[in-house]
Amino acid sequence: MGNILLFALLVGLVSALILVPFSKKRKSLMLLIAAVVLITIGTFACYYLFNLDRNLSSLCPYAILVTLVGTAFAVGKERIVKGSLFLLALVVGVYFMIAFLFNAEEKYQSAKMTEKTEISTFDEKETPASVPPQFARNKMKKAFGQVPKTSYYELGNLQIQKVNGEYVYIAPVEFSGFFKWWSGGSTPGYFTVSATDSTANPKFKKSEMVYTPSSFFNKNLERHIRMQYPEAIFYGDTQLEIDDEGKPYYIRTFGEFVSARNGFEGTGIVVVDPESGKTKAYALADVPEFIDGAVSPEAVSLQNSYYGNYIHGFWNSVFSKTDVKLPSDEGTEAQVSPIFDANGDMYYFTDFTSPKEGVDSMLGYALTNSRTGEATFYTGDLEESYMDSEGALQIIEKKFIEKKWYGEMPIIYNFYGEASWLSGVLDSNGFLQNYFIVSAANPEISAFGASPNEALRKYKTALQHGGGTVDGSSKSEEKQGSGIVLRVYKEKTGDYTIVSILLDNKKNYIISSETNPLAIYVKEGDQVDLRYMDTGETFLPVKELKIQGLE
Fold first, then answer.
1. DSSP readout, 449-494?
2. Which CATH class is domain 478-547?
3. Boundaries of every domain in the chain
4. Rounded percentage of the chain residues whose pLDDT exceeds 90
Protein backbone atom coordinates (compact mmCIF):
# COMPACT_ATOMS: atom_id res chain seq x y z
CA MET A 1 0.00 0.00 0.00
CA GLY A 2 2.91 2.32 0.73
CA ASN A 3 4.18 2.02 -2.83
CA ILE A 4 0.94 3.18 -4.42
CA LEU A 5 0.60 6.06 -1.94
CA LEU A 6 4.11 7.29 -2.73
CA PHE A 7 3.46 6.91 -6.47
CA ALA A 8 0.20 8.87 -6.21
CA LEU A 9 1.86 11.58 -4.11
CA LEU A 10 4.69 12.05 -6.63
CA VAL A 11 2.19 12.23 -9.49
CA GLY A 12 0.14 14.75 -7.52
CA LEU A 13 3.14 16.93 -6.73
CA VAL A 14 4.56 16.99 -10.26
CA SER A 15 1.12 17.55 -11.79
CA ALA A 16 0.40 20.43 -9.43
CA LEU A 17 3.70 22.10 -10.30
CA ILE A 18 2.77 21.93 -13.99
CA LEU A 19 -0.87 22.97 -13.58
CA VAL A 20 -0.56 25.87 -11.15
CA PRO A 21 0.74 29.12 -12.72
CA PHE A 22 3.49 30.72 -10.64
CA SER A 23 2.71 34.17 -12.01
CA LYS A 24 -0.06 34.45 -9.39
CA LYS A 25 2.17 34.26 -6.35
CA ARG A 26 -0.49 35.06 -3.73
CA LYS A 27 -2.78 32.24 -4.79
CA SER A 28 -0.20 29.78 -6.13
CA LEU A 29 0.67 28.16 -2.78
CA MET A 30 -2.93 27.45 -1.86
CA LEU A 31 -3.69 26.25 -5.37
CA LEU A 32 -0.59 24.06 -5.32
CA ILE A 33 -1.59 22.40 -2.04
CA ALA A 34 -5.16 21.87 -3.22
CA ALA A 35 -3.98 20.46 -6.54
CA VAL A 36 -1.54 18.07 -4.84
CA VAL A 37 -4.26 16.74 -2.53
CA LEU A 38 -6.91 16.32 -5.22
CA ILE A 39 -4.62 14.78 -7.84
CA THR A 40 -3.03 12.44 -5.29
CA ILE A 41 -6.46 11.17 -4.23
CA GLY A 42 -7.58 10.79 -7.85
CA THR A 43 -4.40 8.97 -8.90
CA PHE A 44 -4.59 6.64 -5.91
CA ALA A 45 -8.24 5.82 -6.63
CA CYS A 46 -7.61 5.20 -10.33
CA TYR A 47 -4.59 2.93 -9.89
CA TYR A 48 -6.10 1.12 -6.92
CA LEU A 49 -9.47 0.42 -8.53
CA PHE A 50 -8.17 -0.60 -11.97
CA ASN A 51 -4.97 -2.37 -10.87
CA LEU A 52 -2.87 -0.44 -13.38
CA ASP A 53 0.89 -0.99 -13.61
CA ARG A 54 2.78 1.83 -11.96
CA ASN A 55 5.28 2.51 -14.72
CA LEU A 56 5.87 6.11 -15.81
CA SER A 57 4.80 5.16 -19.35
CA SER A 58 1.29 4.44 -18.04
CA LEU A 59 0.94 8.17 -17.31
CA CYS A 60 1.42 9.27 -20.92
CA PRO A 61 -2.25 10.21 -21.73
CA TYR A 62 -2.53 11.97 -18.38
CA ALA A 63 0.74 13.83 -18.97
CA ILE A 64 -0.54 15.20 -22.29
CA LEU A 65 -3.68 16.55 -20.61
CA VAL A 66 -1.83 18.06 -17.63
CA THR A 67 0.86 19.78 -19.71
CA LEU A 68 -1.77 21.13 -22.10
CA VAL A 69 -3.80 22.68 -19.27
CA GLY A 70 -0.63 23.93 -17.56
CA THR A 71 0.52 25.60 -20.76
CA ALA A 72 -2.87 27.29 -21.22
CA PHE A 73 -2.75 28.84 -17.73
CA ALA A 74 0.92 29.90 -17.86
CA VAL A 75 2.37 33.11 -19.30
CA GLY A 76 5.76 34.29 -20.50
CA LYS A 77 8.79 32.03 -20.06
CA GLU A 78 6.72 29.69 -17.89
CA ARG A 79 4.42 29.04 -20.87
CA ILE A 80 7.44 28.27 -23.07
CA VAL A 81 8.76 25.71 -20.57
CA LYS A 82 5.40 24.04 -20.03
CA GLY A 83 4.64 24.19 -23.74
CA SER A 84 7.86 22.31 -24.41
CA LEU A 85 6.78 19.67 -21.89
CA PHE A 86 3.43 19.42 -23.67
CA LEU A 87 5.09 18.90 -27.06
CA LEU A 88 7.37 16.24 -25.59
CA ALA A 89 4.43 14.41 -23.96
CA LEU A 90 2.45 14.70 -27.20
CA VAL A 91 5.27 13.20 -29.30
CA VAL A 92 5.67 10.30 -26.89
CA GLY A 93 1.90 9.80 -26.80
CA VAL A 94 1.60 9.78 -30.58
CA TYR A 95 4.47 7.27 -30.76
CA PHE A 96 2.67 5.01 -28.30
CA MET A 97 -0.57 5.33 -30.26
CA ILE A 98 0.89 4.46 -33.66
CA ALA A 99 3.50 1.92 -32.52
CA PHE A 100 1.32 -0.93 -33.83
CA LEU A 101 1.96 0.39 -37.35
CA PHE A 102 5.70 -0.16 -37.04
CA ASN A 103 6.30 -3.05 -34.63
CA ALA A 104 4.44 -5.77 -36.53
CA GLU A 105 7.74 -7.34 -37.59
CA GLU A 106 8.89 -7.46 -33.95
CA LYS A 107 5.59 -9.07 -32.97
CA TYR A 108 5.92 -11.67 -35.71
CA GLN A 109 9.49 -12.52 -34.68
CA SER A 110 8.42 -12.86 -31.02
CA ALA A 111 5.71 -15.33 -32.09
CA LYS A 112 7.62 -17.17 -34.83
CA MET A 113 7.02 -20.93 -34.73
CA THR A 114 8.95 -23.99 -35.75
CA GLU A 115 7.26 -25.50 -38.82
CA LYS A 116 6.54 -29.18 -39.43
CA THR A 117 4.28 -31.09 -41.81
CA GLU A 118 2.12 -33.31 -39.60
CA ILE A 119 1.79 -34.45 -36.01
CA SER A 120 2.77 -38.03 -35.24
CA THR A 121 0.21 -40.80 -35.72
CA PHE A 122 -2.10 -41.35 -32.77
CA ASP A 123 -1.50 -44.37 -30.55
CA GLU A 124 -4.77 -46.33 -30.17
CA LYS A 125 -3.88 -47.36 -26.62
CA GLU A 126 -4.43 -43.78 -25.46
CA THR A 127 -7.72 -41.92 -24.96
CA PRO A 128 -7.82 -39.44 -27.85
CA ALA A 129 -10.02 -36.71 -26.38
CA SER A 130 -11.15 -35.19 -23.12
CA VAL A 131 -14.65 -34.48 -21.89
CA PRO A 132 -15.93 -31.15 -23.33
CA PRO A 133 -15.55 -28.37 -20.72
CA GLN A 134 -19.17 -27.21 -20.98
CA PHE A 135 -20.36 -30.70 -20.06
CA ALA A 136 -17.91 -30.84 -17.13
CA ARG A 137 -19.12 -27.46 -15.93
CA ASN A 138 -22.77 -28.57 -16.09
CA LYS A 139 -21.95 -31.60 -13.94
CA MET A 140 -20.20 -29.41 -11.38
CA LYS A 141 -23.19 -27.08 -11.19
CA LYS A 142 -25.47 -30.03 -10.46
CA ALA A 143 -23.12 -31.11 -7.67
CA PHE A 144 -22.94 -27.61 -6.12
CA GLY A 145 -25.04 -28.75 -3.20
CA GLN A 146 -21.86 -30.25 -1.72
CA VAL A 147 -20.62 -26.72 -0.95
CA PRO A 148 -21.29 -25.41 2.61
CA LYS A 149 -23.47 -22.26 2.67
CA THR A 150 -24.25 -22.77 -1.00
CA SER A 151 -26.10 -19.45 -1.39
CA TYR A 152 -22.88 -17.53 -0.69
CA TYR A 153 -21.03 -18.90 -3.69
CA GLU A 154 -20.98 -19.68 -7.40
CA LEU A 155 -18.80 -21.73 -9.71
CA GLY A 156 -15.62 -20.04 -10.96
CA ASN A 157 -13.69 -20.44 -14.22
CA LEU A 158 -12.98 -23.95 -15.46
CA GLN A 159 -9.57 -25.19 -16.59
CA ILE A 160 -7.93 -28.52 -17.29
CA GLN A 161 -4.86 -29.86 -15.49
CA LYS A 162 -2.91 -33.04 -14.82
CA VAL A 163 -2.95 -33.99 -11.12
CA ASN A 164 -1.22 -37.16 -9.92
CA GLY A 165 -1.08 -38.44 -13.48
CA GLU A 166 -4.81 -37.97 -14.11
CA TYR A 167 -6.42 -35.34 -16.33
CA VAL A 168 -9.06 -33.36 -14.47
CA TYR A 169 -11.08 -30.20 -14.81
CA ILE A 170 -10.78 -27.78 -11.90
CA ALA A 171 -13.13 -24.94 -10.96
CA PRO A 172 -12.86 -22.81 -7.81
CA VAL A 173 -15.85 -21.84 -5.71
CA GLU A 174 -16.23 -18.03 -5.88
CA PHE A 175 -18.24 -15.42 -3.99
CA SER A 176 -21.55 -14.49 -5.60
CA GLY A 177 -21.37 -10.81 -4.59
CA PHE A 178 -19.96 -8.12 -2.29
CA PHE A 179 -22.18 -8.82 0.71
CA LYS A 180 -21.55 -12.56 0.48
CA TRP A 181 -17.81 -11.82 0.55
CA TRP A 182 -18.29 -9.42 3.48
CA SER A 183 -20.12 -12.11 5.44
CA GLY A 184 -18.10 -15.13 4.36
CA GLY A 185 -14.55 -13.79 4.26
CA SER A 186 -13.16 -16.87 2.47
CA THR A 187 -14.27 -19.48 -0.04
CA PRO A 188 -14.42 -23.14 1.03
CA GLY A 189 -12.61 -24.93 -1.84
CA TYR A 190 -12.85 -26.15 -5.42
CA PHE A 191 -14.38 -28.85 -7.63
CA THR A 192 -12.61 -31.48 -9.70
CA VAL A 193 -14.00 -33.90 -12.30
CA SER A 194 -12.34 -36.32 -14.68
CA ALA A 195 -11.47 -34.87 -18.09
CA THR A 196 -11.38 -38.31 -19.75
CA ASP A 197 -14.28 -40.22 -18.17
CA SER A 198 -17.67 -38.71 -18.98
CA THR A 199 -19.36 -40.95 -16.38
CA ALA A 200 -17.27 -39.69 -13.47
CA ASN A 201 -18.94 -37.48 -10.87
CA PRO A 202 -17.50 -34.15 -9.63
CA LYS A 203 -15.79 -34.05 -6.26
CA PHE A 204 -15.69 -31.06 -3.93
CA LYS A 205 -12.34 -30.50 -2.23
CA LYS A 206 -12.23 -28.38 0.93
CA SER A 207 -9.45 -25.78 0.95
CA GLU A 208 -9.97 -22.33 2.42
CA MET A 209 -9.12 -19.47 0.04
CA VAL A 210 -9.02 -15.84 1.20
CA TYR A 211 -7.40 -14.19 -1.83
CA THR A 212 -9.68 -14.91 -4.78
CA PRO A 213 -10.80 -13.19 -8.01
CA SER A 214 -14.25 -12.57 -6.48
CA SER A 215 -12.96 -11.04 -3.21
CA PHE A 216 -12.89 -7.28 -2.70
CA PHE A 217 -10.47 -4.54 -1.63
CA ASN A 218 -7.03 -5.84 -0.65
CA LYS A 219 -8.25 -9.46 -0.64
CA ASN A 220 -9.02 -9.28 -4.35
CA LEU A 221 -6.51 -11.57 -6.03
CA GLU A 222 -5.53 -9.32 -8.95
CA ARG A 223 -5.15 -6.30 -6.64
CA HIS A 224 -3.10 -8.35 -4.18
CA ILE A 225 -0.75 -9.41 -6.99
CA ARG A 226 -0.50 -5.83 -8.26
CA MET A 227 0.44 -4.58 -4.80
CA GLN A 228 3.32 -7.06 -4.66
CA TYR A 229 4.46 -6.42 -8.25
CA PRO A 230 3.51 -2.78 -9.02
CA GLU A 231 5.53 -2.49 -12.24
CA ALA A 232 4.85 -5.94 -13.74
CA ILE A 233 2.97 -6.25 -17.04
CA PHE A 234 0.29 -8.94 -16.77
CA TYR A 235 -1.75 -10.46 -19.57
CA GLY A 236 -4.64 -12.87 -19.18
CA ASP A 237 -6.83 -13.91 -16.29
CA THR A 238 -5.67 -15.60 -13.11
CA GLN A 239 -5.91 -19.39 -13.15
CA LEU A 240 -6.18 -22.00 -10.42
CA GLU A 241 -3.58 -24.78 -10.34
CA ILE A 242 -3.53 -27.77 -7.95
CA ASP A 243 -0.38 -29.51 -6.76
CA ASP A 244 -0.23 -33.29 -6.32
CA GLU A 245 -1.27 -32.98 -2.65
CA GLY A 246 -4.44 -31.10 -3.61
CA LYS A 247 -3.19 -27.69 -2.43
CA PRO A 248 -4.59 -24.90 -4.68
CA TYR A 249 -2.54 -21.99 -6.00
CA TYR A 250 -3.50 -19.11 -8.23
CA ILE A 251 -1.14 -18.10 -11.03
CA ARG A 252 -0.92 -15.19 -13.44
CA THR A 253 1.31 -14.68 -16.48
CA PHE A 254 3.55 -11.61 -16.67
CA GLY A 255 5.90 -10.40 -19.38
CA GLU A 256 6.94 -7.33 -21.30
CA PHE A 257 5.67 -5.09 -24.06
CA VAL A 258 7.01 -5.72 -27.54
CA SER A 259 7.59 -1.97 -27.80
CA ALA A 260 6.02 1.30 -26.62
CA ARG A 261 3.36 -0.27 -24.38
CA ASN A 262 2.14 -2.28 -27.34
CA GLY A 263 2.12 -6.04 -27.80
CA PHE A 264 2.99 -8.66 -25.20
CA GLU A 265 5.48 -11.48 -24.76
CA GLY A 266 5.26 -13.71 -21.66
CA THR A 267 8.36 -14.23 -19.53
CA GLY A 268 7.13 -15.69 -16.23
CA ILE A 269 4.37 -16.22 -13.71
CA VAL A 270 3.39 -15.11 -10.24
CA VAL A 271 2.20 -17.90 -7.91
CA VAL A 272 -0.11 -17.01 -5.00
CA ASP A 273 -1.12 -19.09 -2.00
CA PRO A 274 -4.82 -18.10 -1.78
CA GLU A 275 -5.01 -18.90 1.92
CA SER A 276 -2.04 -16.90 3.21
CA GLY A 277 -1.54 -14.50 0.31
CA LYS A 278 2.14 -15.42 -0.02
CA THR A 279 3.43 -14.69 -3.53
CA LYS A 280 6.46 -15.74 -5.55
CA ALA A 281 7.55 -14.95 -9.10
CA TYR A 282 9.14 -17.49 -11.45
CA ALA A 283 10.70 -17.23 -14.89
CA LEU A 284 9.07 -19.63 -17.37
CA ALA A 285 12.15 -21.84 -17.27
CA ASP A 286 11.79 -22.26 -13.48
CA VAL A 287 8.03 -22.85 -13.16
CA PRO A 288 7.16 -25.50 -10.52
CA GLU A 289 6.53 -28.97 -11.92
CA PHE A 290 2.86 -29.17 -10.92
CA ILE A 291 1.88 -26.07 -12.92
CA ASP A 292 0.59 -26.91 -16.41
CA GLY A 293 -0.77 -23.60 -17.74
CA ALA A 294 2.10 -21.21 -17.02
CA VAL A 295 1.48 -19.26 -20.22
CA SER A 296 -2.06 -17.91 -20.15
CA PRO A 297 -4.39 -18.93 -23.02
CA GLU A 298 -4.95 -15.22 -23.70
CA ALA A 299 -1.21 -14.72 -24.27
CA VAL A 300 -1.07 -17.74 -26.59
CA SER A 301 -4.05 -16.46 -28.56
CA LEU A 302 -2.30 -13.10 -28.95
CA GLN A 303 0.89 -14.79 -30.19
CA ASN A 304 -1.14 -16.83 -32.68
CA SER A 305 -2.60 -13.58 -34.00
CA TYR A 306 0.89 -12.10 -34.45
CA TYR A 307 2.11 -15.20 -36.27
CA GLY A 308 -0.88 -15.43 -38.57
CA ASN A 309 -1.34 -11.76 -39.41
CA TYR A 310 2.08 -10.12 -39.47
CA ILE A 311 4.16 -12.40 -41.68
CA HIS A 312 4.67 -9.47 -44.10
CA GLY A 313 4.03 -6.57 -41.74
CA PHE A 314 1.02 -4.59 -40.59
CA TRP A 315 -0.13 -3.05 -43.88
CA ASN A 316 -0.16 -6.43 -45.63
CA SER A 317 -2.49 -7.73 -42.90
CA VAL A 318 -4.95 -4.94 -43.75
CA PHE A 319 -4.83 -4.76 -47.55
CA SER A 320 -3.32 -7.48 -49.79
CA LYS A 321 -3.23 -10.13 -46.99
CA THR A 322 -0.59 -12.17 -48.80
CA ASP A 323 0.18 -15.37 -46.82
CA VAL A 324 -2.07 -14.18 -43.96
CA LYS A 325 -3.77 -16.94 -41.97
CA LEU A 326 -6.32 -16.26 -39.26
CA PRO A 327 -6.43 -18.26 -36.02
CA SER A 328 -9.88 -19.72 -35.45
CA ASP A 329 -12.14 -18.71 -32.58
CA GLU A 330 -13.46 -22.22 -31.85
CA GLY A 331 -11.18 -22.82 -28.85
CA THR A 332 -12.56 -23.42 -25.37
CA GLU A 333 -10.30 -20.90 -23.57
CA ALA A 334 -9.57 -17.52 -25.16
CA GLN A 335 -9.87 -19.04 -28.67
CA VAL A 336 -7.43 -21.89 -27.94
CA SER A 337 -8.08 -25.43 -26.65
CA PRO A 338 -5.80 -27.07 -24.06
CA ILE A 339 -4.89 -30.70 -24.85
CA PHE A 340 -2.32 -33.21 -23.57
CA ASP A 341 0.17 -35.25 -25.57
CA ALA A 342 1.19 -38.86 -24.95
CA ASN A 343 3.84 -37.69 -22.44
CA GLY A 344 1.31 -35.77 -20.35
CA ASP A 345 2.55 -32.33 -21.47
CA MET A 346 -0.14 -29.71 -22.05
CA TYR A 347 -0.40 -27.75 -25.29
CA TYR A 348 -2.77 -25.11 -26.62
CA PHE A 349 -4.28 -26.10 -29.98
CA THR A 350 -5.38 -23.61 -32.65
CA ASP A 351 -6.19 -24.08 -36.30
CA PHE A 352 -5.67 -21.34 -38.89
CA THR A 353 -7.98 -20.53 -41.78
CA SER A 354 -8.04 -18.25 -44.81
CA PRO A 355 -8.99 -14.56 -44.42
CA LYS A 356 -11.18 -14.93 -47.51
CA GLU A 357 -14.91 -14.82 -46.73
CA GLY A 358 -16.86 -18.07 -47.08
CA VAL A 359 -13.77 -20.31 -47.18
CA ASP A 360 -13.52 -23.08 -44.56
CA SER A 361 -10.18 -24.46 -45.74
CA MET A 362 -7.56 -24.91 -43.03
CA LEU A 363 -4.11 -23.43 -43.68
CA GLY A 364 -2.45 -25.25 -40.81
CA TYR A 365 -2.60 -25.64 -37.06
CA ALA A 366 -0.42 -24.79 -34.08
CA LEU A 367 0.47 -26.47 -30.80
CA THR A 368 1.95 -24.21 -28.11
CA ASN A 369 3.61 -25.67 -25.03
CA SER A 370 1.68 -24.25 -22.08
CA ARG A 371 4.72 -24.21 -19.77
CA THR A 372 7.38 -22.75 -22.06
CA GLY A 373 5.38 -20.89 -24.71
CA GLU A 374 7.32 -22.64 -27.49
CA ALA A 375 5.08 -23.26 -30.50
CA THR A 376 5.09 -25.52 -33.57
CA PHE A 377 3.08 -24.83 -36.70
CA TYR A 378 1.92 -27.85 -38.71
CA THR A 379 1.21 -27.20 -42.36
CA GLY A 380 -0.49 -30.56 -42.98
CA ASP A 381 -0.17 -32.45 -46.25
CA LEU A 382 0.30 -29.69 -48.80
CA GLU A 383 -1.22 -31.92 -51.51
CA GLU A 384 -4.47 -32.14 -49.55
CA SER A 385 -7.03 -29.46 -48.78
CA TYR A 386 -7.97 -29.67 -45.09
CA MET A 387 -11.26 -28.50 -43.65
CA ASP A 388 -10.95 -26.10 -40.69
CA SER A 389 -12.58 -26.46 -37.26
CA GLU A 390 -15.60 -24.35 -38.23
CA GLY A 391 -16.26 -26.66 -41.18
CA ALA A 392 -16.06 -29.70 -38.88
CA LEU A 393 -18.60 -28.15 -36.49
CA GLN A 394 -20.94 -27.38 -39.37
CA ILE A 395 -20.86 -31.04 -40.44
CA ILE A 396 -21.76 -32.11 -36.89
CA GLU A 397 -24.62 -29.62 -36.78
CA LYS A 398 -26.00 -30.90 -40.08
CA LYS A 399 -25.56 -34.53 -39.01
CA PHE A 400 -27.75 -33.98 -35.94
CA ILE A 401 -29.92 -31.16 -37.26
CA GLU A 402 -33.18 -32.75 -36.12
CA LYS A 403 -31.91 -33.27 -32.57
CA LYS A 404 -30.31 -29.80 -32.47
CA TRP A 405 -27.04 -31.20 -31.19
CA TYR A 406 -23.78 -29.33 -31.72
CA GLY A 407 -20.04 -29.92 -31.48
CA GLU A 408 -17.60 -28.48 -28.97
CA MET A 409 -13.81 -28.47 -28.70
CA PRO A 410 -12.80 -29.78 -32.15
CA ILE A 411 -9.20 -31.05 -32.13
CA ILE A 412 -7.27 -32.41 -35.09
CA TYR A 413 -5.48 -35.77 -34.76
CA ASN A 414 -3.54 -38.04 -37.07
CA PHE A 415 -5.72 -41.17 -36.98
CA TYR A 416 -4.27 -44.02 -39.08
CA GLY A 417 -2.36 -41.57 -41.27
CA GLU A 418 -5.51 -39.47 -41.90
CA ALA A 419 -5.78 -35.91 -40.56
CA SER A 420 -9.07 -36.06 -38.64
CA TRP A 421 -11.22 -33.79 -36.50
CA LEU A 422 -12.53 -35.18 -33.21
CA SER A 423 -15.20 -33.27 -31.29
CA GLY A 424 -17.57 -33.89 -28.43
CA VAL A 425 -21.27 -33.62 -29.36
CA LEU A 426 -23.59 -31.91 -26.87
CA ASP A 427 -27.35 -31.57 -26.75
CA SER A 428 -29.23 -28.30 -26.28
CA ASN A 429 -28.84 -28.62 -22.49
CA GLY A 430 -25.08 -28.97 -22.72
CA PHE A 431 -24.92 -32.69 -21.93
CA LEU A 432 -22.51 -34.97 -23.77
CA GLN A 433 -24.20 -37.32 -26.24
CA ASN A 434 -21.35 -38.80 -28.25
CA TYR A 435 -17.98 -38.21 -29.91
CA PHE A 436 -17.73 -37.43 -33.62
CA ILE A 437 -14.74 -37.96 -35.93
CA VAL A 438 -14.55 -36.63 -39.48
CA SER A 439 -11.72 -36.66 -42.00
CA ALA A 440 -10.20 -33.21 -42.54
CA ALA A 441 -9.39 -34.03 -46.18
CA ASN A 442 -12.47 -36.14 -46.98
CA PRO A 443 -15.47 -34.75 -45.03
CA GLU A 444 -17.73 -37.53 -46.34
CA ILE A 445 -15.83 -39.99 -44.12
CA SER A 446 -17.04 -39.76 -40.53
CA ALA A 447 -18.15 -41.81 -37.54
CA PHE A 448 -19.44 -41.31 -34.02
CA GLY A 449 -19.65 -43.33 -30.83
CA ALA A 450 -20.48 -43.16 -27.14
CA SER A 451 -16.79 -42.95 -26.23
CA PRO A 452 -13.72 -41.65 -28.07
CA ASN A 453 -12.37 -45.17 -28.53
CA GLU A 454 -15.69 -46.48 -29.86
CA ALA A 455 -15.84 -43.58 -32.32
CA LEU A 456 -12.26 -44.31 -33.31
CA ARG A 457 -13.04 -47.97 -33.98
CA LYS A 458 -15.99 -47.04 -36.19
CA TYR A 459 -13.94 -44.37 -37.90
CA LYS A 460 -11.34 -46.96 -38.84
CA THR A 461 -14.06 -48.93 -40.60
CA ALA A 462 -15.43 -45.75 -42.22
CA LEU A 463 -11.99 -45.05 -43.67
CA GLN A 464 -12.03 -48.47 -45.28
CA HIS A 465 -15.56 -47.84 -46.57
CA GLY A 466 -14.56 -44.55 -48.09
CA GLY A 467 -11.57 -45.97 -49.88
CA GLY A 468 -9.14 -44.36 -47.45
CA THR A 469 -5.98 -46.01 -46.28
CA VAL A 470 -5.62 -47.27 -42.72
CA ASP A 471 -1.93 -47.01 -42.02
CA GLY A 472 -2.23 -47.85 -38.35
CA SER A 473 -0.53 -46.14 -35.44
CA SER A 474 3.11 -45.27 -35.04
CA LYS A 475 3.56 -48.51 -33.09
CA SER A 476 1.58 -50.94 -35.26
CA GLU A 477 2.82 -53.29 -37.96
CA GLU A 478 1.18 -55.51 -40.54
CA LYS A 479 0.99 -59.22 -39.62
CA GLN A 480 -0.38 -62.51 -40.97
CA GLY A 481 -2.68 -64.76 -38.99
CA SER A 482 -4.89 -67.81 -39.29
CA GLY A 483 -7.20 -69.93 -37.18
CA ILE A 484 -10.66 -71.37 -36.63
CA VAL A 485 -13.58 -68.99 -36.08
CA LEU A 486 -15.11 -69.39 -32.61
CA ARG A 487 -17.61 -66.51 -32.66
CA VAL A 488 -18.96 -64.10 -35.29
CA TYR A 489 -20.88 -60.84 -34.87
CA LYS A 490 -22.28 -58.95 -37.87
CA GLU A 491 -23.55 -55.38 -37.77
CA LYS A 492 -25.22 -53.60 -40.69
CA THR A 493 -23.84 -50.10 -41.26
CA GLY A 494 -25.35 -48.29 -44.24
CA ASP A 495 -24.79 -50.34 -47.38
CA TYR A 496 -22.13 -52.51 -45.77
CA THR A 497 -21.69 -54.99 -42.93
CA ILE A 498 -19.14 -54.82 -40.15
CA VAL A 499 -17.95 -58.34 -39.24
CA SER A 500 -16.31 -59.00 -35.85
CA ILE A 501 -14.49 -62.34 -35.52
CA LEU A 502 -13.06 -64.24 -32.55
CA LEU A 503 -10.49 -66.92 -33.53
CA ASP A 504 -9.23 -69.86 -31.55
CA ASN A 505 -6.05 -67.86 -30.81
CA LYS A 506 -8.30 -65.73 -28.55
CA LYS A 507 -7.77 -62.62 -30.66
CA ASN A 508 -10.55 -60.41 -32.01
CA TYR A 509 -10.60 -59.01 -35.55
CA ILE A 510 -12.86 -56.54 -37.37
CA ILE A 511 -13.45 -56.19 -41.10
CA SER A 512 -15.84 -54.41 -43.48
CA SER A 513 -17.74 -56.11 -46.31
CA GLU A 514 -16.82 -53.18 -48.56
CA THR A 515 -13.16 -54.10 -48.65
CA ASN A 516 -13.84 -57.85 -48.30
CA PRO A 517 -17.32 -58.65 -49.71
CA LEU A 518 -17.03 -62.40 -48.91
CA ALA A 519 -16.60 -61.57 -45.23
CA ILE A 520 -20.41 -61.68 -44.86
CA TYR A 521 -20.25 -65.48 -45.38
CA VAL A 522 -17.87 -66.24 -42.54
CA LYS A 523 -19.35 -68.48 -39.87
CA GLU A 524 -18.31 -70.33 -36.75
CA GLY A 525 -16.02 -73.26 -37.47
CA ASP A 526 -14.51 -71.74 -40.65
CA GLN A 527 -10.76 -71.89 -41.16
CA VAL A 528 -9.56 -68.39 -42.16
CA ASP A 529 -6.33 -66.68 -43.16
CA LEU A 530 -6.02 -62.98 -42.64
CA ARG A 531 -3.69 -60.00 -42.92
CA TYR A 532 -4.17 -57.41 -40.17
CA MET A 533 -2.63 -54.42 -38.38
CA ASP A 534 -1.24 -55.21 -34.94
CA THR A 535 -2.48 -52.01 -33.28
CA GLY A 536 -2.75 -53.45 -29.78
CA GLU A 537 -6.49 -52.78 -29.68
CA THR A 538 -9.16 -55.24 -28.57
CA PHE A 539 -10.39 -55.53 -32.18
CA LEU A 540 -7.57 -55.66 -34.73
CA PRO A 541 -8.33 -54.15 -38.17
CA VAL A 542 -8.18 -56.72 -40.98
CA LYS A 543 -6.88 -55.65 -44.39
CA GLU A 544 -7.46 -58.99 -46.17
CA LEU A 545 -9.51 -62.10 -45.28
CA LYS A 546 -9.59 -65.54 -46.96
CA ILE A 547 -12.12 -68.20 -45.97
CA GLN A 548 -10.85 -71.67 -46.83
CA GLY A 549 -13.27 -73.46 -49.15
CA LEU A 550 -14.69 -70.24 -50.67
CA GLU A 551 -11.79 -69.35 -52.99
1. ESSHHHHHHHHHHHHHHTT------TT--EEEEEEEEEEEEEEEET
2. mainly beta
3. 1-100, 129-379, 386-466, 478-547
4. 74
